Amino acid sequence: MSTDETPQPWQDQILPILKKFDVKHIAYVPDAGHSAAINQAEADPDITAVTLTTEEEGIGYLAGAWLGGQRGAMLLQSSGVGNCINTLALAERARFPLLMLVTMRGDWAEFNGWQNPMGQATEPALNLMGVRTWRADKPEDVEPLVRGAAGMAFNGDASCAVLLGQRLIGEKKWVK
Fold it and tell me: Please, what CATH class does the domain formed by 10-169 belong to?
């Protein structure tokens, strides 16, 4: 990159990183924090973007992609991590690569109290289920953490998650 180029916004860095790791499947539950990556994945003819009805479906879907010789990643919100707890055992027992990018709720400046319990429990719950986690709170954190987590997941058949903090995403506002 030349010195006169503006850095790419962090939201636009995610899909290109995943594509460098030959990710062909993006499983997601719709989420504003992931909207750039979701829109890019849906528009990309080399990516199969799958809308999930519930997050734990994504783990099974990505296991199937792996068994078929392809790589995938899941985009979800921290509240959805709670839905995945039992299903995370599949990745641990089968030792397939699982890469999750998790937008955080119940975090800094949360307006919805219902998001707080799972938001605060997300990282410890993932760690207890054998998922390695890293947290991005600044735009410059995103590229190296996503790249590093993808490398660990796909090169080491590991379960990895990058937590995208609310300070990174921006404060959500209650709109009546």
Answer: alpha beta
